[in-house]
Specification:
The chain has 275 residues and is an alpha+beta fold. It has nine helices and 14 strands. The strands form five sheets. It has a four-stranded antiparallel beta sheet. Strands 8-7-12-13 form a four-stranded antiparallel beta sheet, with helices on both faces. The two termini are 26 Å apart.
């Protein structure tokens, strides 16, 4: 399931024209999208360039800042860099060390004392190198008691829309345990603000298909961009239930150059769902 050449060969053998990558594995590999395009097959997902743009956390932060999407204060650093202490002081404690190419909590270390920063940098970089083959890390302010809110987006060649939020604050070891929509902590006004930021984020990378923009909401109410999942997620049915939209069906249409079948104007959630 990670051998791109075998997947291409299988698609050709059965006469397939589209390849749906599922939830993980190759679903966020830009090389996979490129290889399928070279083979004359349609990737059911965003363009390879969109995957590349959002796959690297540091470059994604820069793009989002340029697009006016709020980002958590942070800095790109390297273990042993003489400017690390100054960067950490400017960000403020507590802070978190994150892997640039990471995900799923790998290569993450929370730092509450300046003296712990060198060891956290070395440890995070080592884990990131082993897990992702990329030891680059960056610093980011750690938002205590924040909520993890993600916004579902859908984009075709003409427009980008959001389908509200899912809350996934209940986690263990940075892995989501509970997903619910709508969030009990999101008002209609906040939902519009989150949705507008998510739409701006997707437009900034010329996105197509279904994707998720993840935000961290501080206790004081401000929210910040964390990352984008350039794929459909396991938890997408929670959104489907409260918005009445078949996201997989829509992304299959979009992949074939067809417009999404969503009404114009603001979409309003009905009911509540949990996974």
């Amino acid at each position: 399931y990670l051998r791109i050449d075998r997947i291409v060969a299988a698609a050709r053998a059965v006469g397939a024209t589209l390849v749906h990558p599922g939830y993980g594995f190759l679903s966020e590999r830009d090389a996979f999208a490129d290889e399928l395009a070279d083979a004359g097959l349609t990737f059911v997902g965003p363009p390879a360039g969109s995957i590349r743009a959002m796959g690297d956390k540091t470059s994604a932060r820069e793009r989002m800042a340029a697009a006016g999407v709020p980002i958590v204060p942070g800095a790109h650093v390297a273990a042993g860099d003489p400017g690390v202490a100054a960067a950490a002081a400017a960000i403020g404690l507590p802070l978190v060390v994150k892997a640039s190419a990471g995900g799923g909590g790998r290569g993450m270390r929370i730092v509450r004392a300046a003296a712990d920063l060198p060891a956290a940098l070395a440890s995070a970089a080592s884990e990131a190198e082993k897990a992702f083959g990329d030891g680059r890390v960056y610093l980011e302010r750690y938002i205590e008691r924040g909520r993890h809110i993600e916004v579902q987006v859908l984009a075709d060649a003409e427009r980008v829309v959001h389908l509200g939020e899912r809350e996934c604050s209940v986690q263990r070891r940075y892995q989501k345990l509970v997903e619910e929509s709508p969030s009990v902590a999101v008002t209609p006004e906040l939902r519009r603000a989150l949705g507008a930021a998510a739409v701006s984020a997707a437009r900034a990378v010329d996105y197509r298909g279904a994707g998720t923009i993840e935000f961290r909401r501080a206790a004081a109410g401000a929210f910040y961009f964390l990352e984008m999942n350039t794929r459909i997620q396991v938890e997408h049915p929670v959104t489907e239930l409260v918005y009445g939209v078949d996201l997989v069906r829509e992304r299959l249409r979009i992949a074939q150059g067809l417009p999404m079948r969503l009404p114009a104007g603001e979409l309003v959630p009905r009911g509540w769902a949990i996974e």
